[in-house]
Every structure is written in C-alpha cells, then in structure tokens.
Amino acid sequence: MATRTSDGTTVIATNRVARRDYDVLDTWECGVVLRGAEVKALREAKVQLADSYARLVDDEVWVFGISITAYSHASKQVPPEPVRERKLLLHRHQIDLIADRQARERLQLIPLSLYFRDGRVKLELALARSRRKVDKRQLIAERDAEMEARRAMARGGRGR
User: Fold this and answer.
1) What is the DSSP-derived secondary structure letter of residue 135?
2) Residues 29/90, Cβ–Cβ less than 8 Å
3) Which of 26, 36, 41, 133 is 20–30 Å from 100 (CA)?
C-alpha cells in the first residue's frame, strides 16, 4: 500500500531489513529505468524490495532482486519479467564517488525505498556497512531499553 508523505512523495515500498542489517553511511536518490506496464504495477504497489541489492557494472549502477509483479490489466502478449536487473540513473560524479568509497571501505549498495516524486519513480540507494550479529543484538537491546523508558514515563504521567 502506497503512503503519501508531507513533502509530496508517495512511498511505494521500503526495505525494512536493510536498516536492521546495515549501518547506512550515505544515501542517494536515483531514477529507475522501467519497461512497459511496470509503472502502473508500481502505482498498485506490487513490488518487493527484500533481498535486493545494487552493483556497479561497467561504470553503471544496476539493481538486482527487485520483484515487480505484473500489472493486472496489462497485455498478455508480452509476458513481463518480475525479477530482472534494472539500470539506475545517477550523475557521473555520484557513480565515481560510490565506486571510490566502495573500493576503499568495502561497502555495499542497498536499496532502502521506492517512491514517486513528481510522477517519476525514484529509488533511495544507500552506501552501507554490514552489521555483525553482536551489533544487531546491541541495537535491539538499546531500542528495548528506550521503549521501556518511554513506557515508564507514560505510566508515571498517568499516575498524577
């Protein structure tokens, strides 16, 4: 289900696992090259970002593993490919920066969200470092402690 935000963008899908498994260091907004009725399928929010990743191939950025289910009213003559590689549209200086940082720091390119901005499909791409299992546990423990503190504050406020 697509949700509209305050800045006029309509979020189609988010990769919630990415924020848990990776430390996001930098993000970019990029366009996506789509075919046929894929935009209409995205308007119906028929997309999965789980297990998707991006990679540099021949000085271009490609995203793999995004599954866009076929549009319900599309022509059946040309069967769509739900999971295929799609080219991302970035400026040359952004691609060079990503390539340089990825080579130096061994970072991954992870899609965070897919959304409409001014009628165009955009993808939020993150340069991220993988978290170790210990880091994930620590993050979960911090969230639980923060939530418990908020609950205690709320309970204390109701007692008055």
Assistant:
1) H
2) no
3) 133
Tokens read off for 64: 């793999």
Q: Which residues of 112-122 are buried (b: 16+ CB within 10 A; e: fewer)?
A: bbbbbeeeebb
3-class secondary-structure state, position 50 = coil
- Cα separation of 42 and 140, whole Å? 32
Residues 108-160: tens digit of each pLDDT: 999 999 999 988 999 999 999 988 777 778 888 888 999 999 999 888 877 65
**Which residues, 6+ apart, have CB-to-CB distance to 95 below 8 Å?**
56, 59, 60, 61
Report the DSSP pairing between strands 86-89 and 3-4: unpaired
Q: What is the pLDDT of residues 43-65, one digit of tens each?
A: 888 888 888 999 999 999 999 99
Residue 39 has pLDDT above 90, yes or no: no
Token readout for 81 is: 């490919």
Token pair of 154, please? Answer: 């709320």
- 36-67 core/surface letters (b: 16 or more CB in 10 A; e: else): ebbbebbeeebbbbeebebeeeeeebbbebbb
- Per this entry, what is the length of the chain? 160
Mean pLDDT, residues 80-86 taken together: 81
Q: Which CATH class is domain 3-131?
A: mainly beta
